[in-house]
Specification:
The chain is of the alpha+beta class. It contains 16 helices and ten strands.
């Protein structure tokens, strides 16, 4: 028999003994057992408490980082939409700057989060980090494209299947980490329940530790349970849209304070997201208004082009027909369906040639009409009509505008007018009366015929542009100007019968003068027409007859 077995038997015997020492030994053994059990349970409780704190810290940090990443991704996407909806490249610059700032913040959050990732979260975090890098790279590229090439190019870059795949994968990674932290929250609740159970066991084990357990329970309740409940209520109110709710315990320096700070970040993120949603809704309303305005503008343009008196063609950079108004089809007598959008210009000319509405080489005409410089020319149709064509390159985009005007009647009128003017000139130049036209404002000679040149004995350059005082002797010049001014003021024709005047180069002549006002559009005389009839020979003959009779 060993010494240990002998001692154990002695202790049992002592415990069974009704003596004081046995009772004391039993009490001591009971107290020792309670103390040992209490120690074991206390050590276990301390380990669980440490695990609870570590788990709480990981949950808080993970939740904060996750919410920050999610908020920054959402803000970046909304700025990208703002760049899409900008009217031009200059308007996209603020959105591009915000995109770069948010993607930099995402990189900073990921760099701060990476050393704090737990080993069992490394796999999900690695996938999220890869998606985040691709997301940042694409958004920076999109911002640069929007500033350099405009919102249309940025939208074309964003509407890509690979981009959508990266975005869905990023959402899945964020969702996976969110589920991990959700499971960790459930485990945290289970761990809290285990701590409470240990507390109740401790109360049942030793009365001596009852106050300690109660005090610890109250401490846990005051320091953890109640703050968590208050923070939970605040989270519920914030999630329901009551953003004025204060976040309790935000000033604490422990885990509860960190959790309250995370809730404050969540509140700020929710408020910012709501503001972004409101901004997005307003932007959508403005975009719809712009689309309505564009539709009205197109309707007005179609109405205007339908009623303009000239034919119009609009071509894109590849010489394809974009627009053809009704007047063009009427001018070339084209049936419906001949000039449709998308048709090449030389193809349209070939169809017009088959219908007898074009004469010439379609390819040559197309090259002439789509030159780099504005061109104008007249096209002779087989039916004898003449069409004046004016071609201009578009200023805002590659393409051309071609205006067609039927000038057949105008040319006929111009020819008739030219013939009439020539005929009138021949008549005026060959009549026997001297015809002089004087400017009504300064009374300067502007026109005289051949008979006036013979009557005055002065060449046309010697009288055109001068006044009567500058051409005739002073007393004759004053008389002529007074008579002309009388016609201008009275606006009535006058006549002066035979009276002598001293001409500059033909001596004294007897003339009869009739003056007529030429009234302009304003109702005032613009010219004075003088008709001089040389009566010198007749006056001399009358004088000879009179002398002979005497």
């Amino acid at each position: 028999m060993t010494a240990g077995s002998i001692a154990l038997r002695a202790a049992i015997a002592c415990c069974r003994s009704p003596t004081v020492s046995g009772k004391l030994l039993r009490i001591s053994l009971a107290l020792g057992t309670c103390v040992a059990l209490l120690t074991v349970i206390a050590v276990t409780a301390l380990g669980q408490q440490a695990h609870l704190q570590a788990t709480t810290r990981d949950y808080e940090l993970g939740a904060v980082y996750l919410e920050r990443i999610n908020a920054l991704v959402y803000a970046t996407v909304m700025e990208s939409r703002g760049a899409y909806m900008s009217p031009d490249a200059a308007a996209t610059k603020p959105y591009a700057e915000n995109i770069e700032r948010y993607t930099d913040e995402i990189g900073e959050v990921m760099a701060d989060w990476r050393p704090r990732v737990r080993p069992d979260d490394a796999r999900e975090f690695a996938g999220l980090s890869d998606r985040i890098d691709k997301f940042r790279k694409f958004r920076r590229e999109l911002a640069a494209t929007a500033v350099a090439q405009g919102p249309v190019a940025a939208r074309a870059l964003g509407d890509d299947q690979a981009v959508r795949t990266i975005r869905r994968a990023l959402n899945q990674d964020l969702g996976a980490l969110a589920r991990v932290y959700s499971r960790r929250a459930d485990a945290l609740d289970d761990l809290k329940s285990a701590v409470m159970a240990v507390s109740w066991v401790l109360m049942l084990i030793a009365a001596a530790t009852l106050m300690l357990v109660v005090g610890g329970t109250l401490l846990v309740r005051r320091s953890i349970s109640r703050p968590l409940a208050e923070i939970t209520d605040a989270i519920r109110e914030v999630s329901e849209g009551r953003y004025a709710t204060p976040i309790p315990h935000a000033g604490r320096c422990d885990e509860i304070g960190a959790l309250a700070a995370a809730v404050a970040v969540f509140k700020h993120t929710m408020l910012r997201n709501e503001l972004l949603d409101a901004m997005s809704a307003n932007a959508e309303i403005e975009r719809q208004g712009m689309q309505d305005e564009i539709s009205r503008g197109r309707h007005q343009l179609d109405t205007t082009l339908t009623h303009v008196p000239t034919g119009m063609l609009m071509l894109d950079g590849a010489m394809n027909l974009v627009l053809c108004n009704t007047r063009y089809r009427e001018m070339y007598r084209l049936p419906e369906g001949v000039a449709e959008p998308g048709m090449r210009l030389d193809g349209l000319m070939r169809k017009q040639a088959k219908l007898g509405a074009f004469a010439g080489d379609p390819a040559t005409f197309a090259r002439w009409a789509t030159g780099r410089e504005p061109t104008t020319g007249d096209l002779q149709l087989p039916d004898g009509r003449v069409i004046r064509i004016s071609n201009r390159p578009l200023l805002t985009s590659p393409g051309w505008i071609s205006v067609h005007e039927d000038i057949t009647a105008r040319l006929r009128t111009e020819r008739e007018l030219a013939f009439t003017e020539k005929l009138i000139g021949i008549v005026i130049e060959n009549v026997s009366e001297a015809i002089v036209v004087i400017d009504a404002h300064e009374l300067r000679y502007t026109l005289l015929n051949r008979a006036a040149h013979r009557l005055f004995g002065v060449s046309r350059p010697g009288i055109i542009g001068r006044t009567a005082r500058e051409v005739f002797p002073d007393h004759v010049g004053r008389m002529l100007e007074e008579n002309d001014r009388e016609v201008v003021v009275s606006r009535r024709a006058t006549a002066h019968d035979d009276h002598p005047i001293d001409t500059p180069g033909n001596g004294r002549r007897v003339v009869s003068v009739r003056r007529f006002p030429v009234v302009g559009k304003t109702g005032r005389p613009t010219f004075v027409l003088n008709v001089f009839e040389d009566r010198t020979e007749e006056t001399l003959r009358s004088a000879h007859f009179r002398l002979a009779a005497e």
